[in-house]
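Make up an example, fold above all:
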Amino acid sequence: MSESDELVFGAGAKTADEAYALATRVGQENITQAEVGDFYEQWAATYDKDLLLNGYNSSTPIVAARELAEYIDDKSAPVLDLAAGTGIVGGELKRLGFTHIDALDASQAMLDKATEKNVYKRLICDYMGPNRLDIEDNTYGGAVATACFVTGHARQDCFLEIIRVLK
């Protein structure tokens, strides 16, 4: 058994390599959506800390939020954080002045952690896919997604639904 096989979601990574191994495991080949969901339910408690170890929290969310901010002048316009997880991107959007941020994620445990950040107006627990989301047409002035278009996560079949909820 390799060192990464001994790692347990939710136990907390101790090194950047362990954090990377956890992040890699949720995007492995042949993983099912159910397995991904189980991983995130277990991982929610230590997710922010684990990703901070490998530098994710201090790079990707900041870049994604800043890119969205470049295209949206009205920071009161509703925006959607896709695959929001624990709210890392949402926190950066708030810091940049956005005042109406909603979150969409398939893991209730991750959304429960996001609630603690007091960033989102609405938290929607659902998968991004061909299914119709509980969101009205033309609701959002923009959307942002990070690290969700990997094996077992969001697929290309979600784009028409995302487009439907954007203005």
User: Anything to note?
Assistant: The chain has seven helices and four strands. The longest strand covers residues 101-105. The first helix runs from residue 16 to 25.
